[in-house]
Amino acid sequence: MRSIDGGIMIEIKKILINLQFDGASLRALEIAKDLAKKYNSQLVVFHEIVDVYMMKKVASSFGMPVPPDTDERSKKTAQEKINDLLVDFDGDKKVIVDISGRIKDVLPKFVKEENPDLVILTDEYEYIVKKINVNTLIVK
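and the corresponding structure tokens:
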């Protein structure tokens, strides 16, 4: 446990960050890595591939086929990008890449499953805070 202000001791064993590869979430990832190093926490990086989810939804509504390997190729590409961003982080880490829906719907489910001590979001997803009921750091 570490003291934040010299008096209050907190323990952060697991930090979950929602990474969407934009500028704000890349800044948030750097903060998450620093905090995970400082507190010797597990870093859980969550990425929802919303584009593929929406493409599949639109394609099915028009009766158009979607290549069967679309999910796996998209997940592999995202995983590789995330691994490249974590090359300088040597702590305990877990990467979750999902294609099951919109962030507002799936992120609360993964937060509940992972049970982190801290969630780091960008201000674009600040509205999700009331759905997750976990200590949250908002990065702008």
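(Above: one complete record from the training split.) The chain has a mean pLDDT of 88.
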